[in-house]
Specification:
single chain; 209 residues; alpha/beta; 8 helices; binds S-adenosylmethionine
Length: 209
């Protein structure tokens, strides 16, 4: 499992003017906890599993900046993004996959709907559509689901690999609109990360608050 702690969020917030954090896949809430140390105006995190979502809600109930949503990542993005000010960038931490499995509450193959099991492609399509022209920053966990590479924690274990070989790629990130608007970086630490940063930061970034 990757961790948002791999990233220093302050320079990303300053360079790209990120005022909001949106996480897909809350898990135990470690990403939310880390993000809460930074001065985001709002933090949303969505979790598909009812027990995991309930525990996280309780954990962050006292923090008015944090909202834990219990639905699919697609549903949450479709509902929340249209209401977010386009002038303020969002920092996305896209980490939803295998409902319940990382915490022993399900197996990696239990979810038969591929878009709920591995929602990344649909999430990116929604973000591109609802935040157009998109000048947000996207941090994506678990690159090893999609590609081979010298990952710090090794290759994707066979028991957790549910993608057929023809879908094991990030072609959906390498083509427009992302290839036109964002630079892409790969990191091989942990289970691998993809970072998409806008080629043209918002006009007031840096001084942004
Ligand atoms: C790796 S964990 C998240 C860890 C967390 N982001 C962190 O940084 O600590 C992945 C989580 O995504 C959830 N999940 C899986 N598919 C989902 C979906 N389609 N929508 C929302 N959450 C999903 C899983 O139930 C699991 O709790």
């Amino acid at each position: 499992m990757g961790t948002l702690r791999f990233f220093n969020l302050q320079p990303l917030m300053e360079t790209f003017g990120c005022r909001y954090l949106f996480e897909t896949g809350t898990g135990m809430g470690e990403g939310v906890r880390y993000a809460s140390f930074y001065q985001f105006d709002r933090i949303w995190s969505v979790e598909i599993h009812p027990d995991i979502a309930a525990t996280a809600r309780e954990r962050f109930a006292d923090n008015g900046r944090i909202e834990i949503l219990h639905e699919t990542s697609e549903q949450a993005l479709a509902r929340v993004l249209p209401g977010i000010d386009r002038e303020k960038a969002v920092l996305f931490w896209l980490d939803a996959h295998f409902p319940g499995a990382d915490f022993g509450l399900a197996s990696y193959r239990d979810e038969s709907d591929a878009d709920r099991r591995l929602p990344l492609q649909r999430e990116l399509e929604l973000i591109a559509k609802l935040r157009r022209p998109c000048r947000d920053v996207l941090l994506i966990d678990d690159l090893r689901i999609y590609e081979e590479g010298p990952f710090g924690e090794g290759p994707m274990p066979d028991f957790a690999q549910t993608l057929p070989p023809e879908l094991r790629n990030i072609d959906f990130v390498l083509r427009p609109p992302w290839s036109e608007s964002h630079d892409l970086q790969r990191f091989y630490e942990n289970t691998g990360y993809l970072v998409l940063t806008p080629r043209h930061p918002p006009p007031n970034a840096g001084a942004a608050r």
